[in-house]
Amino acid sequence: xxxxxxxxxxxxxxxxxxxxxxxxxxxxxxxxxxxxxxxxxxxxxxxxxxxxxxxxxxxxxxxxxxxxxxxxxxxxxxxxxxxxxxxxxxxxxxxxxxxxxxxxxxxxxxxxxxxxxxxxxxxxxxxxxxxxxxxxxxxxxxxxxxxxxxxxxxxxxxxxxxxxxxxxxxxxxxxxxxxxxxxxxxxxxxxxxxxxx
Length: 197
Hints:
The chain is built from 8 helices and 8 strands. It is of the alpha/beta class. The longest helix has 16 residues, at 74-89.
């Protein structure tokens, strides 16, 4: 294993290993699945940058996601989301968390498949609801019955998320344990993560 991107790391048991991330890891899944928390822990474990596409969109627009939705609508937001994804996928390999709807676009899925690897953090409705029900920052859940809205979104999106390159169950265990499970899934793809053990 050679190259400047090779890093000496420690796994959850303190064992040292070498790793080199060759492609950007794109975390996909529903709001509340843990994409940001697990993605941050994974990036820390692999010693690579962590980026959040929603934060990058907010920075570029100088407005919050909720403000973009309210002022310009969802189609405008989705267009900006695709532009930001394209830019980030062309950068240095990193761990990238995406908004729940980003993977719904066929163009985005193709872009991610060609330039990175998608990891679906799969979670059931109860887990998701427990994680998002007290958050006011979810524009799609500003409805009279947010739990039913979440259920309908999950039902519509799961078949598309199932097209992801890798699937990791989200729910059981700590954020760090989930990050280890994602790293183990990535290790099955030597085109994405090269390790010595």
